[in-house]
Amino acid sequence: MKKRLITFLGTGQYKTTLYEGPEGGNLKTAYVAHAIARLWKVDEVVALATDKAWETHGRGLEHALGNQLPLKVNKIPDGKTQEELWRQLDVLLQALSVGKDTELLLDITHGFRSQPFFAAGALGLLRMAGVLDGVQVHVLYGRYLPEEPDRSPIWDLTPMMELLDWAHGAAVFTTTGQGDRLVEVARRADNTLRRQLATAGRRDFPQTRPLITTIEDFTEDLATVRVASLISGYAQDDNAKSRARGSAERLLDALDRYRDQAASALPALAVVLKQVDAVAQGLSAERLASPEGDQAMACLARRYLKFKRYPEAAIVLREALVSRHAPGPEAVEVNCKKFDPTAREAAERRWSEIDRDAQRDVAKVRNDIEHGGFRNQPQSASALTKNLSKLVERHLPESEERPQGRTWFVTRHPGAVEWAERQGLQIDCQTEHLKTEDIRDGDTVIGTLPAHLAAEACARGARYLHLSLDLPPELRGRELSADDLERCGARLEPLRVLRGC
User: Same structural domain for residues 134 and 250?
Assistant: First the structure.
């Protein structure tokens, strides 16, 4: 791999000094480019210089480098006007654009006025645009010490430039959920730190790799819409299913556990951890078939909307609504040994039967996205995203409140009906026998249902309020009046009934 050194020439007086490399080695010379070229064993030197700077130092630098190391000059304007500044940037971009077979060293020691700033901007632009992907880059600066004019350490400012990489990676992650860049930068910084510690004979490596790995796992699950793996955990091996934890939960735990070490070892990583934490918040639940799981899926759909990842948002919206109509957890818990695809299909049919309009609206948007608009009268992008956002907000509200529905009171006892009236309960439907297929998402069911009916009502998205009594033995088997119910402490207790997995 060849090495290219890009250096600036100014018009000031360069005095002979002992330039010292950061990893040992030194060279006495008036030109920092000469010292860098020898200490880093570069293959080519490109000098960026105005006409006056080249007249002042060009021949001297050529003589110092000798005939075996060619020097190429790229003339730049003085930068006295806005137009000249942009021409400077154009020259910089051309000089910095190298292939993966070239290691790049940028010396900013003698950059005049805005030149170092433009150099940093050009380098950052090329890195973020991917032009320098896979290219090793070093930013060097020879510091002049007035108190020690006979020695000048050469500083490696590359970590400062890598702040741009951190900023780019964090910005991409927090706006799109794509974490490849952030993981790449973190791994590179972690490996560099470990090499430095090992060179110094130290083995007290920071525990940053587990954190980086969990960020990668989380972003991979986001990229592939692995809902169960994200929220509650998933394992292919049946024996490991009970130990599986969602990647969102594992990431939040890793952030709590390793935050302090990360702040000490990789300060730039510590700066972006709040943004990482914010992306993972709200996406964890112990089980998918639970109110918490339902809320996590709603949160995931909204997060995809925020990232403008509309196909993923449509997928999660549909699956969240199917899950709400599941007959039991075996149709929802992907990580369960007894997950039943036929039960999942039954949940889809029930959703269509109970809320055909919602099913049709979601299918219309999802199919339009999925088929790339190849259909009669496809929606425009703006209409599609607007309709999708409305569907998410309507069916997966951000608050934990359920959609407003009907209140069912299931009882055959006149005393219970009178008791409900005394309590001021607003009953929409009073029935002696509940047909669970009539229950919709957001309904409330009151009664003393058998466990299997209560579970089915909950699976359909209803809130179940159990009519509880402290019934003494002498009143058992008797028809109770409203007064009897009050004396027995009649009350409504909210219960969430789930079938076992």
Answer: no
